[in-house]
Amino acid sequence: MSSRGCGACIPRFKRILLKLSGEALMGEEGFGIQPRVMQEVAQEIKEVVDLGVQVGVVIGGGNIFRGLTAASQGMDRAAADYMGMLATVINGLALQESLERLGVPTRVLSAIEMRQIAEPYIRRRATRHLEKGRVVIFAAGTGNPFFTTDTAASLRAREIGAQVILKATKVDGVFDKDPVAHPEAEKLDEVRYMEVLERDLKVLDATAVSLVKDTQIPIVIFNLRTRGNIRRVVMGEKVGTLIRG
């Protein structure tokens, strides 16, 4: 018997904000964009769009340029951050191309104006695109230096009324220690916002956590490398680590 139309097939969330790190797009290459990885990410996004879910994406730029790293090596922090924001635009355009190749309509909205390749970010315009079923890719962070793309994700999630933030990482969730350096690290299934701050768990910066804490937007930290995880989260399955109030 077909399961189409069953209650279990109804997504738990109708509007989501997906945060992708730039590092997640480079696969095993160590730098840049690996087309295979980008296409896999696009396919996973398409699967939730096909469920009727409205998707906003904030994308990082660490696979191309990291402002914090450059600043630590002597570059002016503001200049380094602007360079990092431009790297997110490159990633946003690459994701757009991959999605549209799959037939998914998209719009890239940039916090730094560059009309030849992206629309300027306007909140109402972004919301309207989402309502029309377009994937909205938010590029150039917040448009301001000294803020991370995690903070941009929290800000955009609040502005568009997202019901959840999905942060895609290379690990299975939040751990009590760095799982790379400490193989015995214990995965946490659920964490409170204040716990993230008090224990300095380093999954999100303090500004990003503070932004969502006020509105109680849940955050799910999950492993992007596990095929189908985005759909599982959207359908309400327990995946990764849930951060909530």
Notes on the protein architecture:
By secondary structure, this protein is an alpha/beta fold. It has a single domain, classed as Carbamate kinase (3-Layer(aba) Sandwich), CATH 3.40.1160. Helix content is 36%, strand content 19%. It has eight helices and eleven strands. It has a nine-stranded mixed sheet with strand order 4-3-5-2-1-6-10-11-9, with helices on both faces. Strands 7-8 form a two-stranded antiparallel ribbon. β1, α1 (35-49) and β2 (54-59) form a beta-alpha-beta unit. 42% of the residues are buried. Residues 1-5 have low confidence and may be disordered.
Q: Tags for this entry?
A:
disordered N terminus; 245 residues; alpha/beta; 8 helices; 19% strand; two-stranded antiparallel ribbon; 11 strands; nine-stranded mixed sheet; Carbamate kinase
